[in-house]
Every structure is written in C-alpha cells, then in structure tokens.
Design a protein that fits this description.
Layout: H1 6-22, E1 28-29, H2 37-45, E2 51-55, H3 61-67, E3 70-71, E4 79-82, H4 87-92, E5 106-111, E6 117-122, E7 130-134, H5 138-147, E8 156-161, E9 165-169, E10 174-177
Parallel strand pairs: 2-3, 2-4, 4-5, 5-8
Antiparallel strand pairs: 1-9, 6-7, 6-10, 8-9
Helix pairs in contact: 1-2
C-alpha cells in the first residue's frame, strides 16, 4: 500500500480552488482524496476554527478527524457541502455583515457534470464577458444573484463534478442566463 501525501494533494487542490474563484467560469481539476474530489475539497478548506454543514452520503468522518472542524446548521456554517444543488441551502447561507463580509458562507455543490444552463458571466477576473454552462437551474442562478446583490455581502459557490472538474463563482461575478 502506498502512502498518501495529503499535504501535497491539499496544496495542489488549494491552487485549483484559488484559480477557479480568480477566473470565474474557468474549469480546473481537483486531485481526489480518499477516492473523492469532494472530500479533497473539504480537506483543503476545513480546519479547527471553522464550521461546516454537509448534506449527502460521502463519509465525512475521516475529514472531521483530519481537520477537527465543527459541524453546524446551514445558517451558521462557514462551509456548506451538498451532494445536490440545493436552492434552500443557498437561501439559508450566511452573507456576512458590512463590518465583516468575510463571515459569509462558501457553498460547494456536487454535480454530475458542469453542462446544464448556458450563461454569460461578467465581473472581476473576466475579460468583458464569458459564455459558459453552469450545472444549475435558472431559478438557482436568480437566487444566487439576489443573494450576491449587495456587495461586499454575498457567498462564493463552487460546483464540483464527480470526475473532479471544478468551477467557482465569486460574489462579484454577475450571471445572465442566455
């Protein structure tokens, strides 16, 4: 049995997460941890001073042991992980406050693929505009734009395909359905 270098995997996946938010709409790749790109992302983001909520069937126990992060309700969690793209979780996610907009949530949704709804993205990290597909419904996009309408308040969203493809949408990204 070969040893797993979790620190190396976390470093590479952190770069992918950072680039996905820096360049919204770009597709990055995650290296799986324990056979899952979703668990790999949790391993990067979670540590003992943050909270998380998880809705799904992945075995988060190993990540909890490694990170010592505390579970919380969706309204209080710093990170919200879900096996489905759930509008209710988006609505419950905290957006921070004007003194501390960084006390907002980051949502991570598992999806089969990144190709569902064609949209046009604009904002920081995008040269003029960019056409991409997102793995969510028009209703989800409308709710996300409403949630992020009062900058600097808002949430960041990551979509993670089962094959390890990653796309990030920052709170500064504007989305228009086509």
């Amino acid at each position: 049995m070969s040893a797993i270098d979790i620190e190396e995997i976390n470093r590479e996946n952190f770069k992918s997460l950072k680039e996905a938010l820096t360049y919204p709409g770009s597709i990055k790749t995650l290296e799986p941890l324990f056979g899952s790109p979703f668990l790999a992302t949790a391993s990067v983001l979670l540590f003992n001073e943050v909270s998380f909520y998880y809705s799904g069937s992945e075995d988060m126990e190993s990540i909890e042991v490694i990170t010592n992060a505390q579970s919380a309700s969706p309204k209080e969690a710093d990170y919200i992980f879900s096996d489905t793209i759930d509008e209710a979780l988006l609505e419950e996610a905290k957006v921070g406050n004007y003194l501390s907009p960084d006390f907002s949530a980051t949502l991570l949704f598992k999806c089969d693929s990144l190709d569902v709804t064609e949209v046009e993205l604009s904002g920081p990290g995008i040269d003029k505009s960019k056409k991409v597909t997102l793995p969510c419904s028009q209703t989800f996009i409308e709710k996300l734009m409403e949630k992020n309408s009062d900058y600097p308040l808002g949430v960041e969203v990551f979509f993670i395909s089962k094959s390890g493809e990653l796309m990030g949408i920052s709170r500064t990204t504007k989305i228009k359905a086509l």
